Amino acid sequence: MLVTLSSKGQLVIPKPLREALGLKKGARFHVHLAADKIILEPTMTSPIAALYGKYAETNLLTELEKEHQQELRDDRALRP
Q1: Which of 6, 22, 51, 76 could form a disulfide with 10 if both were Cys (CB 3.0 to 4.6 A apart)?
Q2: Could you read off the pLDDT of 54-66 as tens digits, one per residue?
Q3: DSSP 35
């Protein structure tokens, strides 16, 4: 497949290649030169790395404690 380098140095990876490799928006690549060829290697992001910073503004422990306390109250209410 033939692609064209943009004035900003960008290339578009054709859709059939993206689909075949399962590439999504934000995919990251290692780029290196080998024998006058540009090699793009998709990096695999771990699920943990993908979540990094996602919940930075939340206090998950407090929310879990509240949920647990509510479960205990509900459990007590069901007992005779």
Answers
A1: 6
A2: 777 788 888 889 9
A3: T
Q: Is-above-0.70 flag for pTM? A: no
Q: Given a cut of 90, is residue 39 above it in pLDDT?
A: yes
Euclidean distance between CA atoms 80 and 52, whole angstroms = 45
41 contacts 29 by C-beta, under 8 angstroms: yes
Q: Examine residue 25 and state whether it is found in any structural domain, yes or no.
A: yes
27: burial class by Cβ within 10 Å (0-12, 13-18, 19+)?
A: middle
Q: Tell me the residue type at 9.
A: G
Domain that holds residue 48: 15-78
**What is the total count of domains within the chain?**
1
Is residue 49 in some structural domain? yes
